[in-house]
Amino acid sequence: MIQIYHNPRCRKSREGLAFLEDKGIDFEEIRYLDTPLSFKQLEALLGHLNMEPQQLVRTNEAIWKENYKGKNLSRTEIIEAMVKHPKLIERPIVSNGNKAVVARPAERITEIL
After folding, report:
1. Band of the pLDDT at 5, cuts 50, 70, 90?
2. 35 — phi, psi (to 5°)?
3. Could you tell me the CA-to-CA distances from 64 to 39, 74, 81, 95, 108 in Å, in that order?
């Protein structure tokens, strides 16, 4: 089952959702700001994305700039920051089994279908 980690207030996230709907693809919508990911879930998702935690962080967010920017953080500390502040997670993320992409642009979704 395709899953989209979605923030309805984000234009790029809405574009990813619309892409799935327009293609008639069944999916599960996960509003990760309402139901935050656990450390274990986020770590698994990073593996499916084949990304390091720092690559998934929205470094322009005020939360990052005020609390984490310029610090020498470990992999674990970066994941913990995203768990504590899910707004820091880049979006949208679309997963299909053990594959996932940050769907920016939305057409990247085709890479995992």
Report:
1. very high
2. -125, 85
3. 18, 15, 9, 25, 26
Predicted structure pTM score:
0.94
Distance of CA 106 to the CA centre of its chain: 13
| CA–CA dist 50, 103 (Å, integer) | 14
CA gap 82, 64 in Å, rounded: 10
State pLDDT tens for residues 10-65: 999 999 999 999 999 999 999 999 999 999 999 999 999 999 999 999 999 999 99
Chain-centroid distance, C-alpha 20: 16
Q: How would you class 31 by CB atoms within 10 Å of its CB: exposed for 0-12, middle for 13-18, buried for 19 or more? A: middle
Q: How many helices (H) and strands (E) does the chain have?
A: 5, 4
Which active-site residues does the annotation give?
10
Residue 1 has which token pair? 């089952």
